[in-house]
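Sample A.
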Amino acid sequence: FIVGRNGSGKSAILVAITVALGGRANFSNRAHSVSELIRRGSNSSLIEVQLSNSGVDSYCPEKYGDSIIIERKLSIDGSSGYRIRDPKNKRIISQSRLELQKIIDHFNIQIDNPCTILMQDTARKYLNSKTPKHQYKFFIKATQLDQMLENYSKIENFLHLTDL
């Protein structure tokens, strides 16, 4: 949990974690691009998140060890890059977005799921929504039924192609 008084930076921390783990800047409703998340007067910003990687469900423990450090550097020109390191000797293991996605998938971190990361604006919209259609869309996304339907559709298309 992140707690604090109004204006203390709780939402900024949540946005930083989300962006570091591969989320888009516009997910937060605070910025349209990563360059808007950089402090005024600075040319870049560095976000670092450390994930625990111990136990039977660890991800490639021989490569990463007991924790994984994910860094995302944001540049004022709108570009950004990832570095995935092990914390022991600080060596860079990967700079691949695909490797980050594998880590996120392995730990089942659902960046775009509103039940995983609920931004203030999203909560406000949902709570103030009077339409069942909007609440249904939120439910479908939160339960990942939209992803399941997309996966089934891809499988069905693949099956049709193999039958030819």
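Sample B.
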Amino acid sequence: SANLKPFVPHEFGVNGALQGSTAAFFGYVGFDKVCCLTAEAKEPQKNMPRAIWWTIAILVVGYVSATLALAGLLPYTDISAIGGFPDAFETRGVDWASSAMAIGEVVT
């Protein structure tokens, strides 16, 4: 999509992209819970690494997909820092999706 060019905006550069990606770190805080739960599982030495790798893979795919979807909906300069997806869908005229995303943000 035209919104994905340039992939890394010149005013932010690679450093800006890396600084922005540090916010995704907090999505990985749940690994402590994964480690605690898998320690109680059958064969924890075998299953804990699997659980951690699967969790990382699922989160990475989810975050990258969401980021590309949001950047594809709107140019990065128009994305709201407060309500990214709801505002993006509202801007595109998809009110039901905007409402669904807003409810999802409140519930989660």
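B remarks: The radius of gyration is 17 Å. The chain has five helices and no strands.
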